Amino acid sequence: MSGPQLAISNEFMEALARLPKSQRKKVQEFAKKFRADPKSSAINYEKIHNMDDDRVRTVRIDQKYRAVVLHPDQGNTYVLVWVDNHDEAMDWARNRTFEVHPETQSLQILNVEQVQKSLAEAGSREIGSEKLFSHDDETLLSFGVPPVLIPAVRHLESKEQLSQLQTVLPEESYESLVWLAEGESVEEVRRAVGMPISLRDEVPAGTDRGESSSEDQAIAKGQSGRRFHRVSSDDELDRVLAAPLERWRVFLHPHQRQLTERSFAGPALVLGGAGTGKTIVAMHRARQLALKLQNNHKVLFTTFTKNLAENVRYVLKTLCGDEFNQIDVQHIHDHAMSWLRPSGQFSVGSDDDLALAWDMVAVDNPTNFETDVLREEWFYSHAIKGVTSREEYFRLSRIGRTPLLSRRDRAAVWKSFELFEESLRLAGKTHWIGIVSKAAEYARKVPSPIYRHVIVDEGQDFTASDWRFIRSLVRPSQDDVFIVADPRQRIYNEPTLLADGGIAIDDRIHRLQINYRTTEQIRNWATDRSGGGDMSDLCDSSWSEIATHSLFSGPDPELIESKDLESESVAIAQLIESLKTDFPLEEIAVVVRANWQLKKLKAALTRQQVEHSVLGQNTSDTQGVRLATMHRVKGLEFRCVIVAGLAADVFPTKYRGREDDERAKKQHVITEKNLLYVASSRARDRLYVSTVAGFAKSTFFKTTKT
């Protein structure tokens, strides 16, 4: 039999976060001693009066605070479940039951008062003809509904009544009931919530039935991982308790955990909307892969934006131990440049530099097309489709694109591409497509690649040239490339297929369907105004048909209508003043479309004496409401978001392409809608949307169901 083990509950982390920082340090010191020897005579266990469950005790932190411990009759797992002042800790424990569910075999903690209240309310309802659930008791039990709450669930008549049970039911059962109420099949719900088809007799590998208590086995179950975590070392204990609010670092949804731990035969793709935990899954997977590495091999974690790369690097340091040394976190273009620096200096041309090079092509244009057409064709063929040679370009499918090109036209167009590249070279400049392409050449020649695994976040914004570079960094093998993406957050480039970049996904596509960030009301509002569900999911298939849902409920987003920008700034200042009682200023973000709006907003809030700071690299050290553009807030979240400055001259921005290119015009509108989706889905609790001069009535702003 192995020695005593320490587990920590989700409730314990919640309670710890409420304590003063000085007290948290004492709890952390106690937890280490307790983990070392929970049976030590120095541990002051105290029984709880008027409580029949003898497994539950309190232990002394100091003269004022006590922790509540689930103390097994047999077995070796001790669970810290709460921490509070002495009397409050006692009261909390007396009002809880700790039971292993008879079907799911997961350990559940129930609030007795809430259960009794729910049963009383259910019993007081008149029995109508319409019930929310027609499933039998066995089915409801199989989804983790506690037996005692079956009558309350049976009496539900609406989704609104179900939402009132959210704080009463265990997470897995509430989530399952939400999906069942949406009309999903039992089998589909089992898959979505990560429950096996057969739950009976499910015991983790290596578990000794003769020596382990039912609590020992239950804590190791998949659904228990949502709220219990076994701590394997003091270092891990320090990392867990140091950030009690960041519970996602410890407690994962079973489906999320499966994606972090399972092995794939090749590249794998995980799709999910905003707030579904894509980056969390990617970071946990990077850590799991790093823990298994040997010798000098490494994991590369790459993103499309520098801001996210910096944030991921910081979070991974807090999530990992020594294995962090085997994880490189780098923005994709920075990583490509690192391959080229040893061979000389490369100067990436600005937009003006590239425009000047195309002007040089126009001097001796070998085609009958304007340079706008040639520039768009060059980007499409080289970036979006990953073309690297004249032969590939001749074979390239251009279905749906204008103008139509004959073989002779293509030959002339390719000549214009060569003139463009030569003009840049003579100016001592290059472009990012050239950087990643050259870096891919170097990487493919390395006899023994350092990277065994590549993790990609923001995959929807990568181009085929980026994917070819990623493919060159790691040899095709098991678990080589792992990608997370959200097509609705594609705001930089038009859709790119992974196959065009040499990434073969096959059937290794998985979806995250639960939104953990925002309320259902905010999620629904943001999704309805995104660029639509007809976008490619990187594999030329429709992903929007998969249902998504938030488990949280809250107020509907509120619309603010102003006649002009000046009156809008006054309204926003007044709104922020009213929100101060509910939200710290640092948890409120005001988001606009363009930098010129940001400058005007900053000046207006200064006049209104509203404390604020423009979101940047050092924002964590500043105070006040956060101001940012829609591009800048990507990957971030705030308790309250105000999307401001929505006006006819702002959304959509002016289309600068060719008027005869209907495909490009449609893609422009989709991208602008996706920006609105990105901005509004940053909100966790409250969303305000401010429009100017009647924009709320525009066709762009109105709901477009997808």
TrEMBL record:
<dbReference type="InterPro" id="IPR000212">
    <property type="entry name" value="DNA_helicase_UvrD/REP"/>
</dbReference>
<keyword id="KW-0547">Nucleotide-binding</keyword>
<feature type="compositionally biased region" description="Basic and acidic residues">
    <location>
        <begin position="201"/>
        <end position="212"/>
    </location>
</feature>
<dbReference type="InterPro" id="IPR035093">
    <property type="entry name" value="RelE/ParE_toxin_dom_sf"/>
</dbReference>
<dbReference type="GO" id="GO:0016887">
    <property type="term" value="F:ATP hydrolysis activity"/>
</dbReference>
<dbReference type="InterPro" id="IPR014016">
    <property type="entry name" value="UvrD-like_ATP-bd"/>
</dbReference>
<feature type="region of interest" description="Disordered">
    <location>
        <begin position="201"/>
        <end position="227"/>
    </location>
</feature>
<dbReference type="GO" id="GO:0005524">
    <property type="term" value="F:ATP binding"/>
</dbReference>
<feature type="domain" description="UvrD-like helicase ATP-binding">
    <location>
        <begin position="251"/>
        <end position="528"/>
    </location>
</feature>
<keyword id="KW-0067">ATP-binding</keyword>
<dbReference type="GO" id="GO:0000725">
    <property type="term" value="P:recombinational repair"/>
</dbReference>
<feature type="binding site">
    <location>
        <begin position="272"/>
        <end position="279"/>
    </location>
    <ligand>
        <name>ATP</name>
    </ligand>
</feature>
<protein>
    <recommendedName>
        <fullName>DNA 3'-5' helicase</fullName>
        <ecNumber>5.6.2.4</ecNumber>
    </recommendedName>
</protein>
<dbReference type="InterPro" id="IPR014017">
    <property type="entry name" value="DNA_helicase_UvrD-like_C"/>
</dbReference>
<keyword id="KW-0347">Helicase</keyword>
<keyword id="KW-0378">Hydrolase</keyword>
<keyword id="KW-0413">Isomerase</keyword>
<dbReference type="Pfam" id="PF00580">
    <property type="entry name" value="UvrD-helicase"/>
</dbReference>
<dbReference type="InterPro" id="IPR027417">
    <property type="entry name" value="P-loop_NTPase"/>
</dbReference>
<dbReference type="Pfam" id="PF13361">
    <property type="entry name" value="UvrD_C"/>
</dbReference>
<dbReference type="GO" id="GO:0003677">
    <property type="term" value="F:DNA binding"/>
</dbReference>
<dbReference type="GO" id="GO:0005829">
    <property type="term" value="C:cytosol"/>
</dbReference>
<dbReference type="GO" id="GO:0043138">
    <property type="term" value="F:3'-5' DNA helicase activity"/>
</dbReference>
